[in-house]
Amino acid sequence: MASGGSGKSASEGSTSTPTGSLQQRKRLSSICDACKGKMQLVADLLLLSSETRPVMTSEGVAVADTFDQCRDTVIARTKELSILTHDIQSQLNMGRFTEVGDRLSEMADLVVSLTECSAHAAYLAAVETPGSQPCLPGLVDRYKVTRCRHEVEQNCGLLRVTPLPDLTPQLLLELSQNISTNLKNLTDISSLASERSRDRFAKEQFKLSVKSMSTSGTAFLACVKEVKTQPSELTRNRCVLFSAALVQAVSALVGFATEPQFLGRAASISTEGKGVQTAVLGGAMSVVSACVLLTQGLRDVAQHPESSSKMADYRERLRNSACAVSDGCTLLTQALRERSSPRTLPPVNSHSVN
Fold this sequence. Notes:
mainly alpha; flat
């Protein structure tokens, strides 16, 4: 996160150019792509998956202990999301593209948290229904390792497409720290899976996969350090070259780790439980979809000059997307409170015998 001082200077710089500089617009466009990818991936893994599982933190514990905790957290997140979407529009209207990008990154993180809590709430509510059976954990959490792979791919991809002049020491530091964190998470998960596995081949393969990833990671991070101290097209091209090997090693590890035998057994959900689950997941999906549309709208604005004949249409879409975010938050909140979809709530006394 930016400090107060740097935030001030960025604000002053962006207000001096109401339409935003080309560099600010390019940065916002890049942030839009990253945020859209993150939100869509989490939605695919947690909201659109055919399997019902609890959502665990990076420490290996559930994101919440009870349904009520999840509900209260999600409702708090929807209020924060409402404030952020309003702030994004305000900053955009003032031409502060740097601040828009910062707020958008916050929004994406908030949507990820909201999605995780909603998916876990749906799991807890579903397994509480008669006839349902909880998940049986495996050696590997598919959601966690897939998120790690995505983060590594995204950061390596950003480095590949960013021109040398834009590879600032701060950006390189953020990229290397993010990649290192995700490599460590994958290492910890794989090492634990190796220890717990009863299969001789799996034990060894997890270790070898970590070794391959670690070697590729060390070589890549050395190139990042070199381009930071000796920036040139040569040192940048080395980063691109070795990032490919790292992405391949990470992909191989995650591909192996997410084979069915390592994932345990998904929950078995009754018909009643599936109804509750669908209501909550549907509410969360409406929020994510609206936020993705908002992000796409911001990208359109960032990629076109203010004089474009389409700009009025782009800004109108942004306003509509912000309204859709608000509507989605209302749907999700109602679904959590009623444990049923507001769009399909049965009439009062519908279960009484006439």
